[in-house]
Amino acid sequence: MDIIRHHNPDIVCLQEVLPQFVQRLVSVPFIRKSYMLSDATGDMVRPYGVLIMTRLHVSHFMNYNLPTAMARTLLVAHATVNERPLLIGTVHLESLANRMKREQQMAIAFPLMKAEKRSMLMGDFNFHHTWPEQAALDEKFIDTYAATHDLTTEPGYTMPQTRRYSAWRPDRIMIQDDPSWSVRQVQIIGNRVMSIFEEDDANGRTVTVDGVVRTPSDHYGLYCELDLES
Asked: Which pTM does this prediction carry?
């Protein structure tokens, strides 16, 4: 909640959301006052799922089924900015060794997101930018972090190294290429140890050492600012 309050974003997309987390969100006054949620009861995220929160005007949300064995869907908000339509999509693509399933899911998601010239798709894509699935990303969409950083020196890992896995970058904010907007900046957020674990951090106890997650999530977040023409 502190991260959302600090950055005050117009759009928040979350993955692996549980019904009880939705209940926690709607109990927070500034969330309830400032944001429209795609699910205010938790019914749409059973057993877990994706969620969109936004300050923008939204006419409706659509939840599209994807081929999956893990309850994965594409959630899309039909919004308006400066009297122009905007599609906001979020996904949590299939986990583990399921490359073909992820590619099938993207083959459904990207065409749906092209229904408007301004559209964005973000979330946990579950593959690193050097993996074969990278070739399945739609060429009309820009990876905002890769567009604003040199990945050789700023790789943008959103999952840190652990005892079992190397650091990698499964999370993306993708925007459809259109002359009416551009990327101002992209930052990695949510990568600081929570205050209750500061002593552990000072003593060298990290997720790499013992596997314990001390950040708000096992994934870091991405914060993106866009410049839009009126």
From this structure: 0.96
